[in-house]
Specification:
- By secondary structure, this protein is α/β, with parallel strands linked by helices.
- It has 2 domains: 180 residues, Rossmann fold, CATH 3.40.50; 181 residues, Rossmann fold, CATH 3.40.50.
- 41% of the residues lie in helices and 15% in strands.
- The protein has 16 helices and 13 strands.
- The strands form 2 sheets. The chain has a 7-stranded parallel sheet, with helices on both faces. A 6-stranded parallel sheet has the order 10-9-8-11-12-13, sandwiched between helices.
- Strand 9, helix 9 and strand 10 form a beta-alpha-beta unit.
- Helix 3 packs across helix 5.
């Protein structure tokens, strides 16, 4: 079967989808809507995947580009002659395909498209309904997304839900038999500076981008509160983004700046070391379906503190593999961090349960097979 895989950009998620599709008998073509921004994935496309050159893919897509992109998409469809188009996010790539009138279309939610974008203005709301009305199948990563898709008019029987999952061999412990962090002898860039202080630190890790939707400012404010009470607290903030200045100001004014590391954007190969050397993974994202970062932490046996939004509630059992706190509440997050420190002796067992849950529900190799089910539904 000839499949046109049409995505907004080239991210780690795209790499994993395309790598898995490359191992099938399908002939897969890759179309990129946007480009020219920050590097999202540093691994090259699998050689079996044919990237299609077209009018898009070189810069952020604007509404004014819509007509030009729409016309060239129709040319691409005539050229590639796909048997099926796999497209997402909903209001961008999938919307263009729906406008072009192509069938069968498998629309794929990226979480934020239904959780956030569809609700911020009337146009995105209409585009969501239009796209799902013209989709032959729909893929989401959690029950929250499934329910939203139904509310926008997607028939439930044409929805396939599966967590996108992670590579459990990559996001793993150094040994399967030991989860005690005191026995992990794996120095990482995140831990070298703190270990040199010769103090028993308690290390927190955040991996999300510094954009408003991910609530890094909430983490910064919570860390100020908690670190004033427990000076041994340390925080590693990976990534970067538009909120760099206000976040650093929070930490400077709070007099905890020297207790924070800023490694920036780290490579996929280095990422597991950061999880393994953290006592806790924390996120304050205001919107998530199934959070891949949370699953990566679980894969490495790291308990988590995350907001009590529906997507996280599907993965966190409070006190068993992590904790939940009210979304946006920095004081509650600080209290949760201090509570976790008081239960430090329980973290290895919580990490073990987190890993077991990842093995049971977040194995990408197993979960990917559900995509074929969506293709079968779309093909009728």
């Amino acid at each position: 079967m000839r499949i046109l895989y049409f995505s907004r950009d080239y991210t780690t998620h795209d790499y994993r989808f395309l790598t898995a599709l490359a191992k099938t008998n399908h002939r897969v073509f890759y179309l990129r809507l946007e480009g020219g921004g920050q590097v999202l994935e540093d691994r090259p496309l699998p050689p079996e995947i044919a990237q299609v050159e077209w009018a898009g893919g070189h810069q952020p897509a604007k509404l004014r580009d819509g007509v030009h992109l729409f016309d060239d998409l129709r040319r691409v469809i005539r050229q590639v002659k796909p048997d099926l188009i796999h497209a997402g996010p909903v209001q961008r790539s999938a919307f263009l395909v729906a406008l072009a009138g192509f069938h069968p279309l498998v629309s794929v939610s990226w979480g934020y498209d239904l959780l956030h974008d569809a609700q911020i203005n009337p146009f995105w709301h209409w585009a969501t309904r239009y796209t799902l009305h013209h989709s032959d199948a729909f893929v989401g990563d959690c029950d929250t997304i499934r329910k939203l898709a139904v509310s926008y008019g997607m028939p439930d029987e044409r929805i396939v839900t599966f967590p996108w999952g992670i590579d459990l061999a990559h996001f793993n412990l150094p040994t399967q038999t030991c989860i005690d962090r005191s026995l992990i002898d794996e120095p990482s860039p995140a831990s070298i500076g703190f270990r040199s202080m010769n103090v028993p630190t308690f290390n927190l890790l955040s991996t999300r981008s510094w954009e408003p939707i991910y609530g890094i400012d909430v983490i910064a404010r919570a860390f100020v509160i908690a670190a004033r009470k427990r000076p041994q607290l340390r925080l590693t903030l990976l990534a970067n983004g538009s909120q760099l200045v206000p976040i650093r100001q929070i930490l400077l004014i709070g007099d905890v700046y020297d207790q924070v590391l800023f490694p920036g954007q780290v490579s996929y190969s280095d990422l597991p070391s950061y999880y393994r050397n953290a006592d806790l993974y924390i996120s304050a994202s205001h919107s998530d379906g199934t959070s891949i970062s949370l699953l990566e932490a679980f894969g490495c046996g790291t308990p988590a503190i995350v907001p009590d939004i529906p997507g996280n509630q599907e993965w966190i059992t409070p006190g068993e593999n992590g904790w939940l706190f009210p979304d946006g509440d920095a004081e509650a997050l600080a209290s949760a961090i201090l509570n976790a420190m008081d239960q430090r002796q329980n973290l290895p067992e919580m990490g073990r349960k987190a890993r077991l849950l990842a093995e049971a529900r977040a194995d990408w190799q197993k979960n990917f097979t559900q995509l074929e089910k969506a293709y079968a539904i779309a093909l009728g």
